[in-house]
Write the structure tokens for this entry.
Amino acid sequence: MYERRVKYAIDWFTVIIYLILVICGWISIYGASHTFEQTELFNFDYRSSKQLVWIAGAMIIGVITMLIDYRFYEQISYLFYGLMIIALLATPLLAHDIKGSMSWIVIGPVSIQPAEIAKVATALAIARFMNSYGYRVNSLRDLIIPAIMLLVPMFIIMVPQKETGSALVFASLILMFYREGMTPVILLLGVAAVIFFVITIAFAEATLPLGTGTWGITACMIMLMIICFIYVYHWLKLPRFAFILAGINTAIAAIALTVNIWLNVNMQYVSIAIVLFDAIYTALLGIAHNKRDTIWIAVFAIAAIIYCLSASILISKLKPHQRNRIMVTLGVIEDRAGQGYNVNQAKIAIGSGGLWGKGLGSGTQTKLKYVPEQDTDFIFCTVGEEHGFVGTTFVLLLYLTLLIKLIIMSERQKDNFSRIYGYCVTCILFFHLAVNVGMVIGLVPVIGIPLPFFSYGGSSLWAFTLLLFIFLRLDAARLDRL
């Protein structure tokens, strides 16, 4: 009797948070789309009224999802994934060009984005594969198939559909791989790649005070020198050789600066030469002390040099609007009337809200339509303007509570499939939240992804609801899965 009762034990706390977020989202959509002429609350000519239809549909999806046997989701996962890959491939052939994206299929008055549902299918398929008998993440080879399952929809959405934002969401599942045993080196390499790229591009035009060259690549090279020093000092536990390395680096830099008195010396190239020396020195030192894996620090340093030198080429390959958005975010260029317009207006809207906000439907930035996409991608600025610091804090705390709760729920699962899927849900929601809020306040480039349960639209709301409630169903049956 106990197991049968627990089998249907829904986590109502999570459901309540979901409902509060959906209600707050509808209120924000109403405030964003409300005009002086809009006097009827249930006039379906307005987006806030249309959102009620999507919300009602989401409630039905949630109920049906909870009524289906939990075993169904694992059994159907591969078929679901395959059908969604077919749907993604067919989308560019059927879609209309909407702001350069070919990811929306228009059926009468309704627009559907298969990429949103593909996130659910991919999470289920990867969870099932990683739940296979005897599967363990012991090396990078064990992640080849899950990585391919991840990259296939990501590539289709990014290239044929030209929807970069939705494609990047799939990359968030790397955090789940880390939880399941992937070496943290991969995460560290990813973080290093982002840091080096930002520094190289942001300071590409900042000239050095002494000698010729720029701070962009030079600063990255200094970071690599520090990494080599720490590696020798801490990991190899050879402090004497670490200080010898630091002394040689200092001597080379001093000689270059001295020569610069008579001849122009490009300190950027000098710093690259020093890092190359450090890489060789560290590798030979490790080999001499029977630590042959030290060769990887040399490979990392050389790869980082090539990567930094290629950063400008990589960014030049982006589309003009994507490149300009990155430049605006990094502060390289100022384009408040162009690519920086949305973010600038969003900041004004959030700042004008003050502590308590201007009140529902009273935001001037929102009311006068200064912020584009104010009820979809930029809906968070509506929260800031109309409900102020208190309102935005409340919303962020709701999301934080939900994410923490999902992590706790994932850890209490009795089988790998439910735990892995739970972490997929958490990663996807976290990425959407971090990037959406980050782009609204100017911390990340504008890539156009919705705020979960808040932004206007049926595809995203239904997809997030399905994503969450499948996990709630699995969690409700966790004791039955022993």
Remarks:
- The radius of gyration is 26 Å.
- Strands lie at 105-107, 110-112.
- The chain has a mean pLDDT of 86.
- Residues 121 and 464 are 12 Å apart (CA to CA).
